[in-house]
Amino acid sequence: MSFVHLLKTADIFYELTDTQLQMVSTICQELHFAADAIVFEEGSAGQELYVIASGEVEIQIHPATSQPGKTGPSTIATLRHGQSFGEVALVDQGLRSALARCSKPDTALLMIPRDKLMLLCDSYPQLGYRLMRNLAADLAMKIRNTDLQVREYLTWTRRG
Question: What is the mean pLDDT of the chain?
Answer without folding.
Answer: 90
